[in-house]
Specification:
Rossmann fold, 12 helices
Length: 367
Amino acid sequence: MAEKKPLRIAMLASISWPLPPKGYGPWEQVAYNLSEELVRRGHELTVFAAGGSKVSAKLVVTCPHPLDVWPEPEASRPQALNLQSGFLEGPPDGVLYEEMHIAECLKMAAAGHFDIIHNHLHAHTLQFADLVATPILTTLHGVAWNKSNHPALLARKHYPFVSLSNKERDFLPQLNYVATIPNGILVENFPLVSDKDDYLLFAGRLAPEKGPAEAVELARRTNRPLILAGMIEPQYQDYFDRKIAPYLDGKQIRYEGLLTQKQVALLYQKAAAVLFLLQWDEPFGLVAAEAQAAGTAILAFPRGSMPDIVQDGRTGFIVSDLDQACQAVQKLSTIDPVACRKNAEQNFSSTAMTDKYEALYYRLLGR
């Protein structure tokens, strides 16, 4: 069999956070992991990202700063007329920067620079996709959950889409799904630790659909220590103040804020379990893969991708309600950390993810 020719790939990443992100930024982390592995395999990668990104591939910076960490005071400056300058001034226009970001990629594609574009900006890129002949592959990253995206996605439903889990397809089954490819992590960044403490861990956005309030309730019922780590988005500050803050005592239940990946990795290593008491069908949970790489059990409701990520009874427990969760907490010591690690290595590593995307690129290009 003839050796396959290396591909010229455009990786159109999100510009909300840098590549790699220092804290939050799942889409950016996946785009970074995939790009780095594709470069190692000899492909010609061009990564489109925000300023502050550092990648091994050719980097095209289309936005001076990531939108979610734009420097102050401009980031929070209210829109108002400056009487001295005569200009209407305000914060950066994120939509405009995103359009400029997409336009730069498609301009280079139209000039024949790429064999394929891997789009991580879903519907926004697809509105301009008919303007270039270069094939565009879109990874959804869960955006079909937002119903306002449906008209734009359906208008380009014939383009190839990748789902992160089969459950994700239920949000919009009419799309042309060409593969289900779980997100991949850099397993080496999450060292295996077999000796666990007794605390439970919630890591992720402190949003109602993620279940942090349920995590607090579980900790209170089982009298287990609980550490919460993650971002509080402005729209959920009231939720946090009502549902989480009253129970923070700095001892049994404490909130550590938004941490770097290295800081969260240390918490994974010693946690008795990481909690995914989801209130929605999350398409994929990077945290669940990362925690298992560190040898840590997952305790989850059977929502979204959790039944695909967690091997029930072997790498964690899938439970239907808080009563069952309380019972499962008592059995966490039966989970073998080595089994958790193997699950992450075999199914959710950057290498496993890249194997699938690489094969898909060649298939879509008829090679």
